[in-house]
Structures are given as C-alpha cells and as structure tokens.
Structure to design on (641 residues):
C-alpha cells in the first residue's frame, strides 16, 4: 500500500508539473511573445487580444503551440494578424531568437515590407557573420509580403538545417538562386521562391537531393539554360514550376528521366527548339504547360500507353503541321490548349476519344475543313474556342456539360487548379482566366471562320453558357428565338454575318447580358425594347443593318420604311429592288463614253488598226445595204416600208 501511494504521488507531481509547464511556458519566451505582439500592433493595432502581460499561461494563447514536456513554443501561426490599415510591417527577426524549439512559423498576409536594421540586429550582413546564429531550427517557414523588399535572404536561414517546407513569396530579396538552401537542408521537401526578384542562372545543388519533391521558382528573372543535369540532381521531383522567367535554350533531355514528375510548368519563357518526345512518355506526368515560348516543329505523333496526361497547354508557340497526336488511353484528358500556333489540316476525327475533355482551345491557327461530328458529341465540354481559323460548312448543334468539374483527389489538387490558365474572348475583349474560376466558366467561340448555313435552334439548350460568339462568318437565316433560354449568358456576339429576319423580342429576358452585337447583318424590323439590359446597348450593337429601325438607331420606324428584303425575291421592281437606278444610269453612260474614248485613242495611235477599222465599217455598210435591198419586198408585205 505504501509503495502504491509513493508511485501515485510521483505520477500526480509529474502530471502537475508537466501541465503547469505546458500552460505557463518559459518566461523568456513569454516576454518575447509580448514584444512580438507590440511589433505587430505598432503603432496602435489591436491584434492578438489574448496575449496579455498579466497572464503567465502563454501556451494557452491563440495561434501558439508548445511542447508538452518542455513548455517551449514550437509553433507560431501568425497569418493575417496585422491590421491592414496600419500599413507595412518592418519585421525585427531577432524577436524570434529566444524560441529554441520553434519549428513552424507562418507570417503570411501581414504586409511585411522589409527587415528592421537596428544598430538588427541587422539581418542583411555578410554570410560569414554568425553573431545572430539562432538557437531554433525551423521545419516550416512561410513568409509572404506585398512586393516590398528585404534586399537579401534573412540571415537566420543560413543556419537552418532541418527545414522541410520553405515559402518566400512576393518579397524583393534579389540575388542568385540559393542552392545552399537545398544543400544545407537535406530534409527539404517543398521550396517556394515565387516573385522574389531573383536573377542569374538557375543553380543546382552539388549533390543529388533525394527528398525535394516540390520546387517553384516562378515569376523571377532567372536566365540562361535549364541545367542539363537537373534530372540527376533532383531525381524525386513531383512538381516543377519555372514559369515567367527568361530561360532560353531547349528543354534538357534529363527532365524525361524524373519518373515521379507529375506537374511541369515552363510557360512564359524564351525556350525554343523541338519539345523532347520523352516529355510525352513520362508515366506520372499529368500536367504540362509549355505555352508562351518559341517551340517549333510538329506535335508528337502519339503518347505512351502509360501516359496519365490530363492537362496539356502548348499555346503561343510556333508549332506547325497537322494535329496528328494519338491518345491511347485518354479517358482522363481534361484540357487541351493548342491555340496561337501555325497548325494546319483538319480537326481530327479521333477527337471523340477524349470523352472527358472539358476545355478545347484551337484558336488562331490555320485549320480548315468542316467540324467533325465526333467533336459535337463530346458532352463534357464546357469551354470551346475554334475562332480565327479557316473552318467551313455548317455549325453543328452542341451539348455543354452541366456536371460538376471532376476532382483529381491527389495531394496537388490546389496546385492543379491554381496553375490552369486560358485566354478567351468575352465582351469583345481577350482576357486571361486562371484558377478555380475556370470550373464555372462556360463559353463557345466560333468567330472569324467561314461557317455558312443557319444557327441551329438547339443552341438555346445551353442554359449555363456565359459567352457565345458566332461573329465574322457567313451565317444566314434568323436569330433563333430559343436564345431567350440562355439565362446565364453575359456576352452574345452575332455581328458580321448575313442573318435576316427580326431580332426576337424575347431576348430582353436575358438579364445577365452585358455585351450584345448583331451589327453588320441583314436584319429587319424594330430593335428590341429599351428595357433591362437592352437599355444599356448603344447604336454600335445594331449598326449596318439596312432594314433595322428604332432606338438607339437614328432611323425611325414608320410607314415610309422600305420593305425588308426576302431571300426569294427575284423581281427588279423599284420598290423591291436592291439596284439604285440613278446610279445605274450614271455608271452606264460613264462606261459608254470611256469605251468610245479608248477606241478613238487606239485608232489614232495605230494606223494598221485604223485601216482595219475603216475596212470593217465599209464591209458592214455594204452588207446592211444588200440585206435591205434583198428583204425590202418581204418586209413591205408585213406593213414595213
């Protein structure tokens, strides 16, 4: 019994001490937290109200986690705590020195504008200055500014060796790529250095780094070629984001050796040459964006049977030749963007193999021929752009998906959604759409082609569509009244066609419509009533329709209006003819006089033709004379004399 009481007493004391330590934290760290609060609230903020001087239990304060055994702070989640109206925050990094076991620090969205340079605790000193060597080793660090600068990497980073996640975003650090960060931190898994004004070549670690799976250096000023040995030095990469830099040269073949790579974004650089075929045969690759470069050559003839490609973006390059790609296993293909290239030939019939395709952009190429019926059968499409080609024939009726956008259900869902980007013309303006908004954007653009025939009324079934553009074609017939079902539409452009008939009055029920144009057609009758959205449309929406009247046009509807043309009319009566007789008479006499002047000038200059002309006249007069002499008796019998 005595032994039991002793053990119980020890347990109670141990639990009590541990509980007190966990709640109370260390005094030096409590003071440091209060100094940090004062810095965040300078000059008169009200953030972190639970951090009070009279409270010794700092481990119970908001946004703090402590080690339950030692009572030391291990996590500071200070994202978005600074009042935005206070302006920029100049961070004194020495405030974090007392936290010996701090391993997670999040300072995102606090308007960090730079580092305090006290007599600092200066944070931007030379690399061999170890006076500020911190006692803590971070595992997670996220710093996000608003484009202001620290001018150099924070000094404490040179002494970190346990980092697993590091994000420095929108900070004007400048300088070269910090390959020492990767070399020093062998456990590093994710590294974000986005929009940090870094420049120079992209430097790889000296040795192979087997833990780094995520590397983003987008939106910097890196230049030169992508190192040829990148596949050997970073063999376990799953995500590589290098967009919006100044890289040139070709894609190194060693990239194709990174078997784990799932997402590759090299867009908006100055890369050139042909795209290595090894890229298309990577079994894990799902997302590839090589748009806005100078790649040339032809598209690959086919993809590997083990390819998992879901998103392919190749727009704004110099690719040429036909679309001859063959997709062996394409059930998961969601996006294909080949716009703004020099592609020729027709839209391939195998397109229906991409039966889960959501986005298809083929605009600004030299494609010709008719739309294959297989394309219109892809009932999952939500965004289709075939504009600015040489396509012809009739426009087929289409289906637009109303199903929710499928999710990938992998660890990089948020990356896939944020990296998606398309250019699409809406409201007569070419805009760039990016991120999650694409999941809700539905549009169709067939403009600037050679399509003929009538608009199928089935387009009125696309009730979720936001943008519909058939402009700059040769479409005929009326505007389908079924367009009044397009309740979500924001932009409707039917201009520069040969449409006739009246504008359906039901279109005034489209309350979401912001852009509307039927200009340069053969429409007739009265313009829609100036109500709701139609009260905002100006004359430019209706101009150059000869038989259209009513506001906002200057032509007033009335009895004096000439009747509208009918496609079957063939008579030349004045009240239904398209010929202006006054213009006809003037042009006839001008042409007649010009012909006489030309003949007279030629005969005056050339004596040989002159003699031939007079001989022809003489022969003609003789023939006429003998004709009359021979036939005069016969004509006199019929009353001619």
């Amino acid at each position: 019994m005595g032994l039991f009481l002793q053990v119980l007493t020890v347990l109670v004391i141990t639990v009590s001490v541990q509980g007190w330590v966990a709640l109370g934290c260390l005094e030096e760290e409590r003071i440091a937290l209060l100094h940090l609060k004062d810095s965040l609230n300078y000059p008169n903020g009200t953030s972190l109200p639970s951090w009070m001087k009279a409270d010794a239990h700092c481990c119970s304060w908001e946004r703090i986690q402590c080690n339950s055994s030692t009572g030391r702070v291990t996590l500071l989640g200070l994202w978005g705590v600074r009042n935005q109206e206070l302006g920029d925050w100049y961070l004194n990094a020495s405030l974090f020195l007392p936290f010996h076991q701090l391993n997670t620090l999040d300072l995102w969205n606090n308007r960090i504008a730079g580092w305090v340079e006290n007599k600092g605790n200066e944070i931007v000193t030379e690399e061999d200055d170890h006076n500020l060597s911190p006692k803590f080793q971070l595992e997670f660090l996220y710093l996000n500014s608003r484009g202001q600068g620290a001018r150099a990497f924070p000094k404490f980073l040179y002494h970190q060796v346990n980092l697993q996640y590091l994000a420095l975003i929108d900070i004007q650090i400048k300088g070269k790529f910090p390959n020492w960060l990767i070399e020093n931190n062998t456990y590093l898994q994710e590294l974000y250095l986005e929009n940090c004004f870094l420049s120079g070549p992209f430097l790889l670690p000296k040795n192979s780094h087997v833990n780094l799976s995520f590397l983003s250096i987008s939106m910097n000023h890196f230049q030169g070629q992508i190192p040829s040995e990148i596949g050997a030095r970073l063999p376990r990469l799953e995500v590589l984001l290098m967009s919006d830099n100044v890289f040139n040269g070709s894609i190194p073949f060693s990239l194709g050796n990174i078997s784990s790579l799932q997402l590759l974004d090299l867009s908006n650089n100055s890369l050139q040459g042909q795209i290595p075929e090894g890229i298309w045969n990577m079994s894990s690759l799902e997302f590839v964006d090589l748009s806005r470069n100078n790649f040339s050559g032809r598209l690959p003839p086919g993809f590997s049977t083990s390819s998992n490609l879901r998103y392919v973006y190749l727009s704004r390059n110099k690719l040429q030749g036909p679309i001859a790609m063959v997709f062996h296993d394409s059930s998961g293909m969601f996006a294909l963007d080949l716009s703004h290239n020099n592609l020729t030939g027709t839209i391939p019939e195998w397109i229906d193999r991409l039966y889960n395709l959501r986005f298809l952009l083929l605009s600004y190429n030299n494609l010709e021929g008719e739309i294959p019926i297989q394309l219109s059968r892809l009932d999952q499409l939500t965004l289709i752009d075939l504009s600015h080609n040489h396509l012809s024939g009739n426009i087929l009726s289409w289906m637009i998906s109303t199903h929710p956008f499928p999710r990938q259900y992998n660890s990089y869902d948020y990356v896939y959604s944020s990296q998606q980007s398309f250019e699409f013309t809406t409201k007569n303006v070419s805009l760039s759409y990016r991120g999650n908004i694409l999941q809700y954007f539905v549009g169709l653009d067939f403009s600037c082609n050679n399509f003929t025939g009538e608009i199928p009324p089935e387009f009125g079934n696309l009730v979720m569509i936001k943008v519909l553009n058939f402009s700059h074609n040769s479409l005929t017939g009326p505007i389908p009244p079924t367009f009044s079902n397009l309740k979500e539409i924001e932009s409707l452009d039917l201009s520069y066609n040969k449409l006739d008939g009246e504008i359906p009055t039901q279109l005034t029920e489209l309350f979401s419509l912001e852009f509307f144009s039927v200009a340069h057609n053969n429409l007739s009758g009265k313009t829609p009533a100036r109500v709701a959205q139609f009260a905002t449309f100006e004359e430019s929406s209706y101009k150059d329709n000869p038989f259209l009247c009513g506001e906002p046009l200057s032509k007033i509807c009335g009895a004096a209006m000439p009747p509208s043309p009918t496609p079957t009319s063939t008579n030349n009566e004045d009240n239904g003819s398209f010929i202006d007789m006054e213009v006809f008479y003037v042009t006839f006499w001008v042409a007649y006089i010009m012909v006489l002047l030309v003949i007279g000038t030629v005969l005056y200059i050339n004596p040989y033709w002159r003699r031939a002309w007079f001989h022809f006249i003489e022969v003609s007069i003789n023939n006429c004379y003998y004709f009359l002499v021979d036939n005069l008796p016969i004509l006199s019998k019929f009353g001619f004399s």
